[in-house]
Amino acid sequence: MEELSVNHLLGIKNLTNQDFDLIFNTTKQFKEVINRPIKKVPSLRDLTIANLFFENSTRTKLSFELAEKRLSADVINFSASQSSIKKGETLVDTVNNILAMKVDMIVIRHPHPGSAKFLSQNVNSQIINAGDGTHEHPTQALLDCFSLKERLGDLKGKHIAIIGDIIHSRVAISNIFALKKLGAEVMICGPKSLLPKYAKSMGVHVETDLIKTLKWCDAANMLRVQNERMNLNYFPSTREYSKLYGLTVEKLELIRKPITILHPGPINRGVEITSEVADSENAIILDQVENGVAIRMAVIYLLASKIKSINYKK
Amino acid sequence: MVFFYIHYFGIFVIINKQMLNRVLLNNLKINVLLNRLTCQLLEFHGDFSNSVLIGLQPRGIYLLERIVDLLKNEYGIKDVKVGKLDTTFYRDDFRRSEKIHFAKATELNFEVEGRKIVLIDDVLYTGRSIRAALTAIDYYGRPSIIELLVLIDRRFSRHLPIQPDYLGVQIDAIEGDKVRVEWRKSDRENDCVYIEKES
Questions:
Q1: Disulfide engineering: A11 pairs with which of A45, A109, A136, B181, CB 3.0-4.6 Å?
Q2: Which letter, b or e, does each residue of B39-68 get, where b requires 16 or more Cβ atoms within 10 Å of its Cβ?
Q3: What is B21-196's CATH topology?
């Protein structure tokens, strides 16, 4: 096997199938590591990683931080709310100042699509995209696919549905790219106002009927309605949304087959998914969170192996 | 397959790469060594009730399998705890060598705390992978003893103060040459150890 084909993880779109194999194989080994009594390896003890979060996050931020610490890297955290961005500093200046303190790798979440790519072109460091606006969220897609593979085996020919607020979802876009590369059939489902017009060009099935979608799929990835990105009303009321697109035990009984349920979190219980479904046997929501740390360890480890040590640098 | 053409008294002789390798041990000698190493293990570990054999990924696993086979079939030790250890994440040449290492499975389904551990690898060269293995074991707990068993010890090439406790043979090989142990899965009669010349 070769090394990763990319120097930054900006999106799933740029990854090859070999990259997937490499990341998943490495993830398996790191999953074993994080289930040991001592969950740490010393590989990255001479590297420093900065987590720059210009947007709120709980899971992803914690997951990246844990992954970095379990690889023994030094970690610094940065949130936009307490920073000089408010004083008018540009993104490139902020990052260059952090890099001047001898930081080796940047993990960035930013509300603007393309910000990770922009940074990769303008600063001298490796960049991992932890979500750029409504564009991509590559590590989430990788961990979703890894969790699905654990449950369903090879994803070739499997039917995977992504249900909910697709138009505002970077998780949906990254998942579509990833699932298509792994050979799965993808269907997106939601109210028409929340489905993007470009969907068909991505080679996915589009459906507005939840029951039809559930009957078709082997696994369903339930997405949250992202109210914070909505500047106008996309549906009449939350109650109506949850009645038509919320996943309930009754709807699952109707289709008479078990399907695997994913959710990238945070869950709005009672809106897109009820508590009974979220806590059921078929929901792998907490597996996703566990795998998230292992996936991020693998990605960081594989990218770090491309930073050559002191003697090789520059 | 690489072919070499040698001009010899006007006749072209074709030799493939395999023929240029110097065979050090044939199957018969390997078997003698395996039996001796197994007996030495038995002498010090008795019924293996508090001992574990850990093969180092990737090539130590084959040697581990042969020794466990002998222990079970020839010496009637039915219950031997075995494990596999991959040291990739503990290596000291991460980001320093051009060669990329890929992690393989680690399977240690037992507590190492207080146990006698025998690390098993086929060739001991610089000692750096054994150092990595010692660090890795340290992350699992505190064994009472850690020993090292190797089939081949390349003398005078150590970078670290590490020596085997159980040793097949010591050999001298020029730096740059590779000492390869070839374990055959189906036809064990064809096992051999040879020196691969740098081409």
A1: A136
A2: eebbeebeebeebbbbbbbebbbbbbebbb
A3: Rossmann fold (3.40.50)
